[in-house]
Amino acid sequence: MSKVIVIGGGPAGMMAAIQAARGGHQVVLLEQNEKLGKKLYITGKGRCNITNDCETDDLLKNTIRNRKFLYSAFYTFDSHMVMKFFENHGLAIKTERGGRVFPQSDHSSDVIRTLQKILQQEEVKVQLRAQVADILVEDNKTKTVAGVGLLDGKKLNADKVILATGGCSYQSTGSSGDGHRFAKKLGHTVTEPRPSLVPFETAEEWVLDLQGLSLRNVLVRIKNGNKLLFEDFGEMLFTHYGVSGPLILSASSLINDSMKDMPLDMEIDLKPALTEEQLHKRVLRDFEENLNRQFKNALSKLFPAKLIPVIIRLSGIEADAKVNAITKGQRMDFVRIIKHFPLTLQRFRGFDEAIITRGGICMKEVNPSTMESKLVSGLYFAGEVLDLDALTGGFNLQIAWSTGYLAGNSI
Question: Whole-angstrom distance between the N-terminal and C-terminal Cα of the chain?
């Protein structure tokens, strides 16, 4: 029986510990917080989007960076296996729009409780408030894991170590980038961590007037000059600093590199189901019904109340102008504003608002079939500490389960 230490009690770490223990090893799980799964607890707004009920090809399509690396991990432990894993251990689950899988209770605490129960059954020794200072290696040319050193000076011997400390997002949960520091010290390359699946700040101050407004079924385009970087249809949200919501978070993941250099132009098509010609006819019809009313009082069928003052300001038409005084040219400009509602994206919000971290341990230095380091024998990686990230919808947690499962199984 070999001794395995898992560093990090998040989803990847807990799964890795369970699988290593099932392989007959003596497993110690070290977590620096006072409880396991602190970040897991807040995922999916506290509901925990466990995975996505889709085929493996779709898991790969929704992975943004280094998807080829995940072939072995995903095919070894796919989303259907994850669902079965939790159901077999008594967790009732459900599938919602877009294949998103949640616990039936809508409580992430039930997911954590299920994992804790399995850890106990598999006799994994969990040490909370255990802060790791270093991964110890035997001092030779081949570099072989010897154990870990804790901040309090204690040394724990191990035959294998699994590093599953997460990235840098939601730092209040303990994701401080320690794992990247440990890996660098052992010779690994770490791609610069950046926030991903994160809201944007905008230049326009009037977004404050729209705070809390959610727009459904809109089309968002993001451009760098004339170059289209992102275009998709769905739901978004205005905040006091800018924009957020599912569409915006997905966009942040896909245009990460472009944001380094300059502000980007964003436009919202508020009526994507209509062409400009069809929309013009619709506006004309609304205006004809309200000929003697003021412009500001003729828009309630077109927009939510909160949006009306802002769109009037952008249209250049006086709010108190009578509808029958609005020219065809003004009407055409108004239609263009509806189809190309403009915003300027200035920067990402920080790691504390990022759902995941983009960047991490270089995948070329990790064996995709086992998750073992190619540089340090006996060192394995799992989860967000690696340079792997995906879109929203349960795909990032699937990466955690799959890489954790494979790392624990490979020992």
Answer: 11
8 Å CB contact between 111 and 91 = yes
Residue 308 Cα distances to 64, 75, 208, 319, angstroms: 37, 50, 14, 10
Cβ within 8 Å of residue 199, ≥6 positions away: 239, 241, 242, 243, 244, 248, 249, 252, 348, 349, 353
pLDDT tens per residue across span 238-294: 999 999 999 999 999 888 776 666 799 999 999 999 999 999 999 999 999 989 999
3-class secondary structure per residue, 177-236 = CHHHHHHHHCCCCEEEEEEECCCEEECCHHHHHHCCCEEEEEEEEEEECCEEEEEEEEEE
Q: Which residues of 140-151 are buried (b: 16+ CB within 10 A; e: fewer)?
A: eeebebbbbebe
SS3 content of the chain, % helix, strand, coil (to 5): 40, 30, 35
Q: Is 30 helix (H, G, I), strand (E, B) or coil?
A: strand
> Using alpha carbons only, what angle is made at residue 298 by residues 294 and 301, rounded to the nearest 5 degrees?
170
- Quick: pLDDT tens for 155-188: 999 999 999 999 887 666 666 789 999 999 999 9
Measured CA to CA, the distance from residue 298 to residue 283 in angstroms comes to 10
> If 0-12 CB within 10 Å is exposed, 13-18 middle and 19+ buried, where does residue 88 land?
exposed
User: How many Å apart are CA 290 and CA 287, to the nearest integer?
Assistant: 5
Q: Compute CA distances 292 → 295, 318, 324, whole Å.
A: 9, 15, 6
Q: How far apart are CA 110 and CA 135, in angstroms?
A: 32
C-alpha span between 183 and 396 (Å, rounded): 21
Strands 242-244 and 214-224: unpaired
Q: E strands along 264-371, which residues?
A: 264-269, 341-348, 356-361
Model's pTM, two decimal places? Answer: 0.90
**Site of tokens 């069928």:** 301
Rounded CA-CA distance 62/390 in Å is 6
